[in-house]
Design goal:
The chain has about 180 residues and is mainly alpha-helical. Helices cover about 65% and strands about 0% of the residues.
Amino acid sequence: MEKDVKEPEDDEATGAHEMDLRTKQVFKGRYLFWLAYQSIGVIYGDIGTSPLYVYSSTFSAPPSYDDLLGALSLIIWTITLMVSIKYILIVLRADDEGEGTSKIGSAFAPVVIVWLGFNASFGIYNLVEHDHSVLKAFSPAFAGQYLVRNKTDGWRSLGGILLAFTGVEALFADLGAFTRR
């Protein structure tokens, strides 16, 4: 039995096939919410777990309060710079038309939502109950002072701080599974 298959038409002016042209996809309502839900499971779990290992890998002895603030400032600013410059301006301009990630995202989204909810709850509790002065680490001056104060050892400790932004790297590697549109 012979199937009637329509061959793609050529555009003689450009040499492009009909199949080469992309159509813009527009997502609305429940489907948009569903895609956002899936992306939480696939993407944001990477950022929520990587910082767990930083301090034990950065310091071989109990650090001073200033060193804790300095390391936290380095973490905050490396993640901020990496996300805002490298990824938003460069990587997100790439488009690989996405892949079949629906099942993975749907399975991990509830776990990641609970995990990030616990992270936020415990973080807010600890800021209120114990020490909110760690918010000073949002000043990049603490990162610079940490490196100047600790000299060579400060630069060596960057290997431990690297763990904080491996999650960001994984986040954007996972982001490749979703289309730009």
